[in-house]
Structures are given as structure tokens and as C-alpha cells.
Amino acid sequence: MPTFETLLYSVEDGIATITLNRPDRLNAFNTQMMKDLIAAFDATDADDDVRVVIITGAGRGFCAGADLAAGGDTFNYDARSEADNAARRVEGVQRDGGGLLTLRIFNSLKPVISACNGPAVGVGVTMQLAMDIRLASTAARYGFVFARRGLNPEACSSWFLPHLVGVQTALEWCYTGRIFPASEAHERGLVRSVHEPDDLLPAARAIAREIADNTAPVSVAITRQLIWRMAGASHPMEAHRADSRGIQMRGKSGDAREGVTSFLEKRPPNYPDKVSKDLPDIWPHWKAPEFI
What we know:
Blueprint: E1 7-12, E2 15-20, H1 31-46, E3 52-57, H2 82-87, E4 89-90, E5 93-94, H3 97-106, E6 112-116, E7 119-121, H4 123-126, E8 133-137, E9 141-143, H5 157-165, H6 167-176, E10 179-181, H7 182-187, E11 193-195, H8 197-214, H9 217-230, H10 236-250, H11 254-264, H12 275-278
Helix pairs in contact: 1-3, 5-6, 9-10
């Protein structure tokens, strides 16, 4: 089982739980947390025992955004250590650390459920946009506070947020930078449901259980990529091509035979295929596009 400086990581009955674990700083995001989260998603992708990933926070917060310990130079690359900058440098170009994380989550082969247990502002909320199903505690608060810090939205949120809640709501939240409650996040479509604090993780686990107990892992991995990537497609023909490749390859798989047979025999399925070795190459650009 991997261990991390800023996270707690556990796997039980097919569900990996990743807990942001800097409670004394309200789980504020720093370079080490970025590196740990990316490594944790590498671990969940590589582990066929992991069917679903749940992300939550330790203590009373989910993530208070970037760690502001450096004061006014927090976001100044020129004032950061070379180690910090090197962790965000890709092909010689400085990248946004939140964006490196959300791109990694975007490419996850396992479904990702956010269980937001408390305040989530800045990168604390933008990292959740790349997750598939977002649940909130009644104690959760959200804020796209960038304009109030002299910044612009980050972590690819200018792509994710309008896709989730529409342009008008995305602009209002980002223009004002105000903090808003879980009830508003639910009303405007950012979160699926709102729960009392003690009911949050059980609700997330119930969804995870439904996925883990009833579906084929390879099919779920393909489905996740199809739906996320088609959000940016220019024409439904792109989806038709990818769907067709997938149906042709998956139709002759052990999973497809088991799925039909178990249904006809009225028994629980036992899917044989593994994400680590049986994922078909249905996509000409299955891997993330190169940075430019």
C-alpha cells in the first residue's frame, strides 16, 4: 500500500479512499500535495483491485486552496524554490500545478467521487471539477476566489466549470469570487447531492458500491473517457467512431460474454477482464495530448 506525506490512502472492497491530510492547514494545497495526488492516481490506475476512488478531506475542511504561507509571493514563480518550480515544469515551460493535477484526474481509468466535507476554495474546488460525481456536506462551502487574489481561474477550470454549470453561473462565481454554500452548489448543478456530515461518506460509498458490484471495470474505464472527451468534440461523428471501435472490440471480450450470460442465468456477474491489461485502444488519441 503506497504512503504519502500529505494524504491518507486506503483500499477496501474495491474502493480506494484518498484523504487530503493537512488538517492543521485546512488541507491547503502545496507542491507536495500536488505530487502526492498525481502519484495516488497513478496507483489507483495500476491496481486492478481498485474499482472506484473517493476523495475527501481530514478534519473540518476539504481544501482551503493554495497554501499561503509564502505571503504575497505565494504565486510568484520567480520567488519560488527551484524544486517547487521544477515540479511544475513541463518541457521547459512552467505549468499551473492545479492544472497538472486535474489533467491527471481527467485521464483516470477509475471513476472518481468527491465527498466534500467542508470549505473548498480555489484549487480546493477546481480540483473537484475533474471528478465524476460530487457530493457535499451541509458544512461545505465553495469559492472561485481568484479575482479576489489578483489571479485568474486555474486547474483547467475555464474548461470544466462551464461544462458543468453553464457559462452564466461560471462567470458569476468567478467574477464575484464570493463564497457560497452547498445548497447553492446543488441548486446550480455543481454537486449531485447534499448530506449531513455523518452521512456524507456513507452516501459516497453507496454509489461506489453500486459501481464496483455490478459493472465491468474495463467498460467503466472506456465509458469515463468517452463521456469526458466527447464533452469537447466538434461533431457527434467523433463519438460514433469511438463508440464503434469500442463495441467491435468489447463485443468479443470475456466481459461481454459474461455480461450477457450472467443476465440470462439471473446471477451476479464475474467479469474476467482487467483494466491493467485488457483496455482496448479504441481512441487514436487515448493518451493525453502533448503540451504545447
